[in-house]
Write a structure and sequence with these properties.
Layout lengths: L4 E8 L3 H15 L5 E8 L6 H11 L3 E6 L5 H11 L4 E4 L11 H9 L4 E6 L6 H17 L8 E8 H9 L7 H8 L3 E6 L13 H13 L4 H31 L6 H34 L6 E4 L5 H4 L3
Parallel strand pairs: 1-2, 1-4, 2-3, 5-7
Antiparallel strand pairs: 3-8, 4-6, 5-6
Bound molecules: uridine-5'-diphosphate and magnesium ion.
Amino acid sequence: MEQLTISFVIPSYNEAGNIANVMKAIADEMMHQQMKYEVLFVDDGSTDGTMIEIRDIQYTYPEAEYVSFTRNFGKEAAIIAGLQHAKGQAVILMDADLQHPPSLISELLKGFEEGYDQVIAKRNRKGDSHLRSLLSSTYYRFVNKAIDVQLNDGEGDFRLLSRRAVDSLLLLSEGNRFSKGLYAWIGLEQKTITYENVTRQLGETKWSFSKLLNYAIDGIVSFNTKPLRLCLYIGLATLTSALIYIFVTLVGIFLHGVAVPGYFTTISAVLFLGGVQLLSLGIIGEYIGRIYNETKKRPHYLVQQTSIESKREGRATI
Ligand code: UDP
Ligand code: MG
């Protein structure tokens, strides 16, 4: 029987201090498995010594491979590059900072051997700030009402994907990628395992508040056009109440004459309507921006260098 090959895909942005650790941790885990494997580091335009570290460990670990970008294209681009370059019958996506415990690898592989196409490692929120946990749980409750696929808090990119799942994800060629939604969109047989949240040991998180907010908006608008419909409803409701207000006031004027010049009401009406209009314009702009980006058909990333020669042509960009 042909031996299974597993590809680990590790998006790495300024992770010089973590590369050797994550490689060693994976190698230690894989020692107990009768499988061939490769560890594919996707260097997302790091400006520290990440690339030097990766080349360095290649001397010790022939399983280490890399694709490096010409600049920082973001984690989503790094993931798609990893999926495109991975050769394995299954891919395990893992962060470089060891927040995705390598000790779960055997469980992920077990799920794969049981025949699941996606084995999802779900984390609890231990150690996260109360504010962040509260914001995320509210967000997921809201987003699941608004969009057509189900997203679950704590289920991120840490997962095993079968070849079939990888190929399905690669069929989705949209420019604005929101992977969490895409994993849910492809469906297939899934199994979830849970683990305790681990806090980052080395380096810093790359998620600033504004990046998180952008991610949250992507989650909603990448998946449907319901916000546009909501805009329409808000607009209709505002218009109706404005008409009722005008009618009632006019009747009042006819019956009792003008009482006090309505300075306050005028200003508040202007502000309110202005707000609604801006909101609607903003939402419409979101979609138009997306259409604009899609029509440009830009590749998700550009490759600076890669250790995987055979797949370099044609597949590096989609
Ligand atoms: N990452 C990346 N490109 C980026 C930002 C992050 O490839 O622009 C990688 C990063 O090196 C890490 C993973 O994505 O391996 C998760 O990033 P981080 O730990 O900053 O996110 P958090 O764990 O705080 O959600
Ligand atoms: Mg992290």
